[in-house]
Amino acid sequence: MTAAADLxxxxxxxxxxxxxxxxxxxxxxxxxxxxxxxxDAFPAAAGRYFVIRGGSLxxxxxxxxxxxxxxxxxxxxxxxxxxxxxxxxxxxxSSNGLGVVALEPYGGAWLNSWLDRDLGVAGRLALRDxxxxxxxIDEPVLRVPQLAIHLSAERTSVELDPQRHLNAxxxxxxxxxxxxxxxxxxxxxxxxxxxxxxxxxxxxxRLTGSSGEFVSAPRLDNQGTCxxxxxxLLAAEPVDGVVPVLALFDHEEIGSTSERGAQSDLLATVxxxxxxxxxxxxxDLHRMVARSVCASGDMAHATHPNYPDRHEPLxxxxxxxxxxxxxxxxxxxxxxxxxxAEFQSACNQAGVPLQRYEHRADLPCGSTIGPxxxxxxxxxxxxxxxxxxxxxxxxxxxxxADVDLYTQALTAFLTPNxx
Length: 419
Ligand code: CO
Fold this sequence. Notes:
This protein has helices spanning 2-12, 17-30, 177-184, 220-235, 266-277, 282-290, 337-350, 370-377, 400-414, and strands spanning 34-35, 48-53, 56-61, 72-79, 84-95, 98-106, 119-127, 132-142, 168-172, 192-201, 206-208, 214-217, 242-249, 293-297, 300-301, 324-326, 355-357, 380-385, 387-389, 396-399.
């Protein structure tokens, strides 16, 4: 259960992609990794390093690499962002005696789950002097109250309009929200020239069930992978010639197209600079990529006890049953036969069971960073994950045992003794 409890701490420290990067950076630094700025020259010496670009982070360990073209990368990928409600630029208004903050959904948030929750606010502020400052207020400031059942004609559910029904109350009368946030961050409101602020449920993550079998938490998709990925990287005792890499991208939930999403040049550029800094050339990079593999980690749908009919009947996925290989013949997931064999071998090495997921053919399948990152890097890629329920709810659920099993599988993937 320790790993599951640690996951709760990780998630509660990380309400935004920027905070995920900071949480991961702290774990890396305390294990001897060094931050490298993209504007600086990359280190010529082998070692353990990481780069942060906004809400994305790439970390690598080249200590067991020779620096030649016979080296290879083993990449664990994931995403740092989760669907949520974000603060609009002009957000202050008052309505019938209440101060209201205008919010809008980011990504495919399951809107009903955001109602009647005590919400904090977090993100980053861009200041006049060029600094970017992270803000995190874990207090119940905002709330989106739902309609009373007596005022609903249907009495079962209300259709939520993202424009009208997701604004949050935060005070009586009226007020100015951004100056209040700046003040709480110890910053002069006039110095704030830009902001990305978002809400989060302030209820702490918990282990639930009769004996803590479940993790009840926000943002399991995909901080479950961020957590297991960094654990795996730190546990990895590199195999000769292997460079373990952790690649965590922002903006997956909105399509990955940005300067720091999985469709950006971030991973390809960092890998290239790792090779060039050690004296290798472009052709060495391409030779390395040709023998490299990426496990794109994202959470997977466990079979729901109340909706078994929504799942492909021959692909039951069990909470607590171990990591999941995700396959889609139309390549919503990147997995092919070669990638599947790579991850199955990693699970065999770790002594961990592997479940296989396919979506029902008559329902639209979600996607991941896998196919996008594969197209960008040209690297063999396999989509994997850990099982969960209530994906994209403000509060999700996974199995405590799966936290460890997933971490062990990713650790073996980064330190292969089978290829
Ligand atoms: Co996801």
